[in-house]
Amino acid sequence: MSALDHAALCGSEDLIDLLLKHQPDLATQQKSPRTVLYHAAISGHPHITQRLLDLNNDLVNHLDEDDELLPLQKAITLGHDKVVDVIVRRCLKADVKHKALVKGLSCATRQGKASLMELLLDLGVDIDGFDRYKNTALHFAAYNNTVPQVEILIMRKAQLDCRDEDGYTPLMDAARSGSPPSVRLLINAGANLEALTDFGASALDLAIAHGKRECGQLLLARLLQRHPDWFKSSKRDCKPYLQFSVECSALELAQNIIEVVVEKNSKDIDNPSVKQFVSSLLWNKWQAALDFFWNTWDVSTNELGIYGTALHYAAMRYQTSVVETILTHPKHPIDVNNKSGKYGTALQAIVVIQPKANYVEARKFLDMVDLLLKHEADIKVVGKPMTYVLQAALFQRRKDLSLSLLEKLRSKDILRVGGQYQTVLRALLAGPPHGDDVVEELIDLLLDKHGESVSRGTKGANGGGTALHQAAETASVRVIQHLMKLNDKPNVEIDIHQADMMGRLPIHFTIRSSQDRWEIAKTLDPDLATLWEKDQMHRTILHFAAVRRNVVMAKRALEVARDASLDVRKVLNETDIDGWTPIHWACRSGDNDEMIELLTTNGANVDARTRDNWLPWHVAVFHNQNYLRPQGGHDKDEDSDDQESSSDTREGLPTRAAPEIGALCNSCWSNCFGDAWHCTTCTKEHHLIEFDLCFKCYPYKEKLHPADHEFEQMPEDWYWTFRQTKAAMFQDFDKK
């Protein structure tokens, strides 16, 4: 700061005069980002402030029209009334509508400084002046719940219904911010209760939307007092008014709203607009309004659309509170097994759109199943799909629901193969890593009472793996130990050498999660006798580790190889059925530099050629990666003309990235690039099943999947369309 700044802060008028007299250019040499006037104002020195203003030096004072005049705002904030008086009089002298005055009035109003606000008004500041967003002082007072300021502004005849740039009036600001005293003052002063924002919302709408119940009650009471039939002429959404009137015990209004909705003269409950209204109430948040509506009109058996009655729609939306209300309503109850619409009962309807067990929506789905079963929903009419519901319950560790379903379902349904996880035991073992006590209890129940088997193979949807394959991928050490101890029971055999349809062993599945599951591998196979076994595609555990970026497991496997005096270079350069080594597989995945470094450091051959003459570099290019570029080659993101070497082009080798399909190959666990195929037979069996093969695995589909299954090729946008279609099953109930 300059000497002049310090003089202003200290309030030394003599020193200021001395500096200005002997160093008149001092004001133009300031290094401070603030003016001298600013320092005088924040220090509360009115005489110094006046002296500086008299200089008419813009570099000292900054009184230009575009400036926010920070000294005035700071003086207001700090309560320096006399400084405020000095600056305001100067601004008024320049222009009665000076922007600084409007901003100063707003500042005093926001901060609840009534005396300063009145001072500004007494000095002639425009009471209805507005900022660049068209907010007046009354807007700020109403929104900030500074009730004395609201009262002062009303008494001084501020415009009550002035609108900001979005059409909000002070009453709307008070309503949405939750200031009942301000709302009351504005209502009593005659503010327009029915004014709308540019978005079509009234003050009552805003109070309801923002949960300001007391403000809403004040507005509702005055609206009914002024215009008893105001709602009948309203074209806005009536659900919030119905809900709010019920909550506020304004039952006469609620009845009025219902009569308007069902078209008072005809009372036609089958009217499409009435059906749409009822459907829109079938959400937990509208439960109070729905209950009142239900008391007035019996819509328990009316079909609202192709999916059935209110019960069906509420169940399909997983609105448990609404379903409970519908099933227990004393006046118009509905039978839980009432058949209606496209699918039959409510339970049948929700089972048809069952989400994947590992989705968040699955918990809501199971909550609804549980609720319907507690109200004695008949599972027999659902049939085969109830097996998949049981699988979902077991996956989510829903013990009570699982036990209930196990009690109700027939043995053949419990042991049915199909769905997302194929068997109930696989579903249980695939669940999240917690609740081992429940898992062990249910394992024993499934095996001892219901005849499930750990070694039972499955169909092609997940490669025909057993429960042990699933456990190797997802279960805890404790659960694996529990399974292995089952070998001690008569007629129970846990075979770690039992392969799935693709020849993959349980130990291979310890790789898939990309986590360190070495302890799992050791628990499954203490001697690691199966560690270097190959599957039908001649893939070793290092191939899978490379593509899944499982560096930890790859390191562990290499340590075992060294300890067993195996030729590590030979292990690293083992080829699969197409001549691909683990380094080729590593080049298929992004963010895999650590794996590639591990393999190359330990002797992987970066010049190895596949059966189709691909180098690891070609694999990387095809999969949109840039690993192991040969010396003199080109980065994959350079122009395609530079990227294509003439020799690679002639030999048909990859020179650019293939399209990414967005699917994961169920055989090699790699993301699909280029040509890929989807099994339509599996998906037709159940919408939860997805089985895909990449360009590399598809030629061997007879080795990997049931021969009678049909595939369709997936274009680049195939999976997006496929998933959008499936998503519509869960979301578009009101549109169909």
UniProtKB/TrEMBL annotation:
Q: Where are the ANK repeats?
A: 133-165, 166-198, 578-611
Does the keyword S-adenosyl-L-methionine belong to this entry? no
User: Does the keyword section mention Zinc?
Assistant: yes
Coiled-coil blocks = none
Please name the Pfam families in this protein's record.
Ank_2
Question: Where is the segment annotated Disordered?
Answer: 629-654
Q: What are the alphabetically sorted keywords of the record?
A: ANK repeat, Metal-binding, Repeat, Zinc, Zinc-finger
Give GO MF terms, alphabetically. zinc ion binding
Q: Which SUPFAM superfamilies does the UniProt record give?
A: Ankyrin repeat, RING/U-box
The record's annotation in PANTHER family points to:
ANKYRIN REPEAT AND PROTEIN KINASE DOMAIN-CONTAINING PROTEIN, ANKYRIN REPEAT-CONTAINING PROTEIN-RELATED
What name does the UniProt record give this protein?
Answer: Ankyrin repeat-containing domain protein
What organism is listed for this UniProt entry?
A: Sordaria brevicollis
